[in-house]
Design goal:
Pfam family, one: BPD_transp_1
Keywords: Cell membrane, Membrane, Transmembrane, Transmembrane helix, Transport
Family: Belongs to the binding-protein-dependent transport system permease family. CysTW subfamily.
Number of strands: 0
Structural class: mainly alpha
Order of helices and strands: HHHHHHHHHHHH
Protein name: ABC transporter permease
Strand content: under 5%
Subcellular location: Cell membrane
Length: about 280
């Protein structure tokens, strides 16, 4: 019997289509056989922009700047934010409420305000603006997102699993490496992906703190005055595809963990935890 399509289904599909429409247009115009500087009118299908992806040295340099800063920012943010989220989700201490409030203030702070305040701080300290100031800025505004994501994951963990590991003789480092980290890994991965996306597409704060360093969003903004080449669409398509692939792999891993025998909604993370822990504690 065919399933009945409700109004909610139609609304959801229309909403998803609306959200994906700009991405679809970006991908489509990466195949546009345009001959002028303006890439806003469809002139035919071609693959030559993918073959000439690195023809524009300044665009390539801007993309490399964005990727290196985003990867470095994601690494630092994930490590620091995971530890902060773990502490906030597991322990009760004086000032815990203030710490949580500060995290949400960082998330809610408008980018124009954060960018202006960071610029004032760097100028006051006499720091030259460039890669390092951009990296420091991106780490600052991304940590709160990772910490909140990991804390939500930690809050849903069953403490009996770690207590069982402790009863089996596992030390703090072994418990964290073989029990806690696999269980919070979906939250860590989600936070890392969020930090990467926030960093690579940031414009406002980077414009304040970047100095002469040009990133991919800043290059696109500058090119709108003279004409945006199709390579921008190709670069955007590849970045979007990489992000979508990473998100799909993370979702698939979480779904597989949730279907494993003995798992509790994906919180067990890895069925090999117990054998690994037994091996570690028996050494």
């Amino acid at each position: 019997m065919p399933r009945k399509v409700s109004g909610l289904h139609v609304y959801t599909m229309l909403l998803i289509a609306w959200l994906l429409l700009p991405v679809a247009i970006m991908v489509m115009f990466g195949f546009n056989d345009v001959h002028g500087k303006q890439n806003f009118r469809w002139e035919g299908f071609t693959l030559r922009w993918y073959a000439r992806l690195l023809d524009k040295d300044d665009l390539t340099a801007a993309v490399v700047n964005s990727l290196t800063i985003a990867l470095a920012s994601t690494f630092v943010t994930t490590v620091v934010g995971t530890l902060a989220g773990l502490a906030l989700g597991r322990y009760r201490f004086r000032g815990e409420g203030v710490a949580g409030l500060l995290l949400f203030m960082a998330i809610c702070c408008p980018e124009i305000v954060m960018g202006a305040s960071l610029l004032s701080m760097f100028v006051t300290l006499g720091l030259p603006r460039g890669h390092l100031t951009i990296l420091a800025s991106h780490v600052m505004f991304s940590i709160a997102f990772v910490a909140v994501t990991v804390r939500a994951r930690v809050a849903g963990l069953d403490p009996a699993v770690e207590e069982a590991a402790q009863d089996l003789g596992a030390g703090p480092w072994t418990r964290f490496r073989l029990v806690t980290l696999p269980m919070i890994m979906p939250g860590v991965v989600a936070g890392a992906l969020l930090a990467f996306v926030l960093s690579i597409d940031d414009f406002v704060i980077t414009d304040f703190t970047g100095g002469a360093t040009v990133t991919f969003p800043l290059w696109i903004y500058g090119s709108t005055r003279t004409g945006m080449p199709p390579q921008v669409n190709v670069m955007g398509t590849l970045i979007f595809a990489a992000g979508a692939l990473a998100a799909a792999l993370a979702a698939r891993r979480t779904a597989r963990a949730g279907r494993l025998p003995g798992s509790t909604g994906g919180q067990s993370g890895d069925s090999s935890i117990v054998p690994k822990m037994t091996e570690e504690t028996s050494r």
